[in-house]
Design brief:
The protein has 2 domains: about 5-50 and about 90-215 and about 360-375, Rossmann fold (3-Layer(aba) Sandwich), CATH 3.40.50; about 215-350, Rossmann fold (3-Layer(aba) Sandwich), CATH 3.40.50. Helix content is about 45%, strand content about 10%. It contains 15 helices and 10 strands.
């Protein structure tokens, strides 16, 4: 597909600590390069967030029943302690993520909302997505930004954004209805999101896949690299963001022992050398593993893309995001790879991925067709 002389800006959540966030941003950029000669991701300054946000959060916490208030407060305190205790490691990881972004993602940091409006004059299209850019808990006081209200309607495109929740709070439904109705080309990442849009606007929004699934294995391997401390022997990846109870730890050790695999934990702060792996090293870790055990959405996605055997677990503690994993497994016809399917009396390292390529090719075509129509790309005859 030939490039076109147009400028496109991406708006997504920015953060230098999450593999999925960085890799979906990179993937969407690379896909849009098929339609545009100039693609950049805009980074909104924190100053654009109104200070009342903190007060509202505190007010919300203390509106909970006492038991929940204590639970939330305890979780926040433990998180603060964690940040202080592991500050050095967290800073190193963030720096490596920033280096990855500098190398692979064309970012433009904007200093004010007025600057954003000025940029809009010279930009042909703005694409918001993917990630949870429409989660009311994440974008409070930044809604004008993530719903593209600063630019003319004909320039607004939503590629597979997520609400992150199954229902919009009553107090923001009127605004969400207005904002969603103002985006002419709109798609979502999950079926729940399509239901929300249908309920609020009456529109049928197509459900498109996460941008990371739009690139092939070979395209991802081009930006992968080997981590300096990657094992020379065979290994399994333990990639959990939620708690790992004793019985789950025992299961992981049993699997490792049965197949003589070293355990590599890539989300464990106690393992400094592995924890500071950047997104390029993350890709190689998944690609070279004999098995991936994870409660991560993008951990599951990259296992599928790299055709690496995996089992997915429901996250313990924090917000459940298992519905999107179930949707992914259903789409790729790999529903037999959940924790309940693990049977140590059977062979668990073999998965037939042969059917997945055709499924992903169809999904990629749907996404490319959507973007082609939204950007008014004429198909070559």
């Amino acid at each position: 597909m030939a490039s076109n002389n147009r400028k496109v800006d991406i708006l997504t959540l920015s953060g230098y600590h999450n593999y999925g966030n960085r890799l979906q941003n990179y993937a969407l950029q690379e896909v849009i390069k098929n339609f545009s000669e100039e693609v950049e991701t805009l980074i909104l300054p924190k100053a654009c967030v109104q200070s009342s946000g903190t007060f509202n959060k505190i007010k919300k916490v203390f509106s909970y029943p006492l038991s929940k208030t204590v639970k939330v407060a305890t979780r926040k305190l433990n998180n603060k302690i964690r940040i202080v205790r592991y500050k050095g490691i967290l800073d190193q990881r963030e720096n490596k993520f920033k280096q990855f972004s500098k190398k692979y993602i064309n970012e433009k940091h904007i200093n004010s909302f007025d600057e954003l409006k000025q940029i809009a004059k010279d930009t042909d299209y703005f694409v918001v997505g993917s990630d949870q850019v429409w989660n009311p808990n994440y974008i409070k006081h930044q809604e004008q930004y993530y719903f593209l209200q600063f630019v003319e309607e004909e320039k607004r495109i939503a590629y597979a954004p997520s609400f992150g929740i199954s229902e919009i709070p009553e107090d923001v439904k009127p605004q969400y209805k207005e904002w969603l109705s103002s985006i002419p080309y709109i798609s979502v990442r999950e079926k729940e999101g399509a239901k929300i849009i249908k309920q609020l606007t009456g529109r049928d929004a197509p459900v498109l896949v996460d941008p990371t699934l739009l690139l092939t294995k070979d395209e991802w391997l081009k930006i992968s690299k080997v981590h300096a401390y990657k094992p020379s022997s065979k290994y399994l990846i333990s990639y959990f963001w939620g708690k790992i109870p004793t019985e789950r730890k025992t299961l992981i050790k049993q699997i490792a022992k049965k197949y003589n695999l070293e355990i590599v934990s890539i989300a464990d702060l106690k393992d400094k050398k592995t924890y500071i792996s950047d997104p390029s090293e993350f890709i190689d870790y998944i690609n070279s593993a004999s098995l991936v055990l994870t409660d991560s959405y993008h951990g599951t996605i990259f296992s599928i893309l790299m055709e690496t055997p995996f089992f997915v677990f429901e996250r313990i503690g924090g917000k459940s995001m298992y519905s999107r994993i179930e949707t992914l497994l259903e789409l790729t016809e790999l529903s037999g790879r959940e924790e309940r399917d693990i049977d140590l009396n059977k062979e668990i390292l073999n998965i037939d991925f042969s059917h997945v390529k055709g499924i992903l090719e169809k999904e990629r075509k749907k996404s490319f067709d959507f973007l082609s129509i939204a950007m008014k790309i004429e198909k070559s005859k």
